Every structure is written in structure tokens, then in C-alpha cells.
Amino acid sequence: MIEHSRLVEYIERWLDGTLSAPEIQLLKAELLRNPEALETYVDIAETHGLLIHGNTSPISHSNVVPVDQILQREKRRNLKIAALAAAAIVVLSLISLKLFFVTPPPTTLAFQTSPGTLFTLSHENSETPPQNQTLEPGSRLQLEQGSIELTLSSGVKSIILAPADLTLHDYQTLYLNTGLAWFEVGKDAVGFTVKTKELEVVDLGTEFGVHSAPDDYDEVHVFKGSVLAKSLVGNRPQTTLTAGEARKSTLTGGLAAIPAQPKNYLTDLPDQLPFIRWTFDKNFQASGSHPDAHTIHTTPLNNPNRSVGIQGTALTLNGNQQSLETDWPGFAGDRPRSVSFWVKFPQNANFTSFPACVNWGDNTQGNSKWKIMLAQDKKNSPPYLRLSFGGTWLNGTTHLQPNRWYHILVTSPDKPNQKGLPTADMYINFSPEKYTYKGFTGVPKNKGMNTATTTRNANPLRIGKSIVHPSNATPTFHGEIDELTIYDGYLSPLQVKAIKQDNQR
């Protein structure tokens, strides 16, 4: 919805012939959907026409009227009639359009979810909530994990990736508090608006993406057509963006130009939780359905090797500072996540220094890292699976044997247990693994899981090397790792069973 002051400005500039084509489309869309805006247009158009008539001199008492005065009056009269006629044509055409659709089908906003999606839906009007998975004005959808597809009957489609928090203001305005959202808007829905804490994005017939993050400035990316982007901070500047352009809000309320990133957005609803995968078959780089997958750069350190794995080739590490280091910060806070991989280790492997298979986060704060490892209490004792949050450890009970492949899967929700300790489900060869708590056995300094990815001591994802500190003495893993997959969300037992079936094909 256009603010009243801006609506008046657009109408006056339209009548003066100075309104740009994108702004005209926006104004027309507003007049079609907003009866009050249409009334404002009629009032301004009438006033505009009267102003064209101008002031005339008092009529002379003389019975003789100069010919040039008659012609001037006639010219003014004709200009007034022409202006009012033009305004009437526009208004009548808009009214006729509204009358033509006098009994339109009710506008609805439905949504569907990808497998594994967790969400909470609440409605402002709780007395008569909409049926099924639909939103009405005032509905709020909080997406904990997974992704959703929104479909507006007026011609809007959107794919939104968790974590997300959105509210439908009206059927032409969506407030995106947090989330990564892609939008495709048809011609019948021109003027559809997405608002964040810092941006207002008005569609002018296009395809675009909006990213609203709690710990970063909001972004808009245009992939087709154009949008009107406006800052809601500072002097509230605005600009029209076309395909290939993107803007990011700034601390002072500006709109900084950034590269458009279409690959960062999902355009179709995935058939499982978004994931990032390292197969180690052709190289050490990541792939997967998660938007982050294509941006991750993986660096091999000290020439790790590849050997025959479960599928294709596996990453082979000698325990002597070989590892993979990435620039991906990992999932932060208490965001649900799951890690799945195959592992094998030789007879002489030593895990008393607790080298990581997979880890990221900040090791200097309580429960602010995420680390999966094989651990030994003393040399020559059988290793076992351990998950460390950085203060709280979950120790598995199965003794692992050398020279055998084991499938490891660790999945964690975002909720602590009754004591405030972080929780997880651990599986070995797809069977639930019992575990015991170590470290903080009472209420920890940081309740639950609080993985830190933006602090000074935070480390991005490392494979085969612990994030204890950056020196070369950091413990490194001795063994083989294959088919490492990180899922954006918690995996239920049913989903774990599905992954097991995929691995058995």
C-alpha cells in the first residue's frame, strides 16, 4: 500500500506528465485495489482541472467584449474540459475494471511444505481461523526448519527457507521479519509488496529475492523485470532496480549496490531438508541443495589423499595435520542441524587428543561449538562416538572396531532438556546410540546449544581437524571419511530410516 503523501505526489506527477513508467504501473495497481486511493485521485484530478481554468478579470460593465478575451476564455474552457475528460476516462476505466470483476473469487494464500519442515502458524483472528494450510491477513508463520511454498491466487509464488518469520498484512503486502525468500509475481499482482525491518520492495512485474537476517543488513536481488526498492531507515531513499541488480541496506539507511546472487535462493520446493554434501569423488568441493552449497570454498591442507570409499572415493587423512578447511561458518545459535558420514580408522589410530571428524564454532565459550569426533579415554582402549557442544559432551556407549566402515548420524533439535542441557539423537549404522552426559551435568553456563559463528574466536567448518586453536599442533583425525552431508534441520527417526534406505540401494 502506498503511503497517502506519496500517493498524492504520484497522482499530481501523473497529471503533470512527469511520472515514470514503473511508477505509473505502481499507481495503477494501487488505484485498482484501494477505493480510498481512487477517491483521492478523483478529488485531485478535479482540482487540477479547475486550476487550469485560472483567474479571469471581472466582467466589464461595458456591453462590448473584446474578441481576444472571448477567444482566451474559450481556450481556457476547452483546456479545462480536456483535462477533466482525461481524468474521467482514466477513472472510469479503472472503475469499469473493478465492475468487470464485481464477483471475483476470494483471494487466498495457501502454502505447502517440504519434507521435514517444522512451523508454527498463528492467526490474529483466532475465532475463525482459516482452514488447512492457508494464511489470511494477520496470519503469522514461523518456520523453524525446512522450506515452504506460498501461492497467492492473484498470481504470486514464493519459496522461503528457514529460519523464517513472516506475517501477511493483506493480500498484497507481506512482512518478512527474517528469512530467505524468492518471489515470482504475475502481471495481475503488480504492486505486491514485501517489507522487512529495513526495506520495502514493491513489485513492478518481476522475479526477485529478499533476505532478512537478524545479524546482518537486509538485501533485495532482482532476477527478472523490476522492483521499486525503498529504505525504511534514515532519509528513506528509493530506487528502481532491474534484472541483475541488487541492493543491501546500510547503517545510515542507504541502499548499497551488491552483486545479484540468484543461486542463493530456492526457486522450487525441495523433496527433503536442504543439505550440503562432500562426496570426495572428483575433488574436495561441496555440492547440494542448500543455497550455501555453491558458495563454499574448501581448501585441502597438507595434501590429503583419496582412497576407495563406500561410494566412489573417500577422504583419507594420516593424522599428521592433513585436513580440509572451508570458509563456511556453519549453522549458528540453536538452529537445528544434522551431520551424516561414513568413517573408518586403522588399528594404530590414536584418539586420546579428541581430533574432530567435523566441527565449527567458538571453542572459548560454553556450548558454543559443534564437534563430532571419535574419542578414547586412554591409548589402546576402544574408541567411541562423542558429540561436544563445547562444555557439554554426549558420549556414545558402542565400542568401535578398526578397519570397519561405520555410518555416523548425529541430529540435534533446538530445544534443551529439562536440565537446560543440549540434546541430540545419535545413530551408528542407523541404529539409535545410547549416550551419557559429561562436562556440565547441572545447568550449564550457556543453556542448550548456542553455536557461535561470528565471534572473534569462531572458526568455520573444518573436516578432520579440531578447532581448539589455529596452530599446527591442533589434533587431526587419522582415518577415512566418506559422503559427508550436513542437513539444515533435525532429522526424525522416520527420516533417518529413509536415509538408511537410500544408502542400501
Automatic annotation (TrEMBL):
Q: What Pfam families does this protein's entry cite?
A: FecR, Laminin_G_3
Record key words, sorted? Membrane, Transmembrane, Transmembrane helix
Give a yes or no for keyword Translocase in this entry: no
Q: Which residues form the FecR protein domain?
A: 163-227
Where is the chain membrane-spanning?
81-101
InterPro entries referenced in this protein's UniProt entry, alphabetically: ConA-like_dom_sf, FecR, Ferrdict_sens_TM
Name of this chain's protein:
LamG-like jellyroll fold domain-containing protein
Q: To which species is this protein native?
A: Rubritalea tangerina
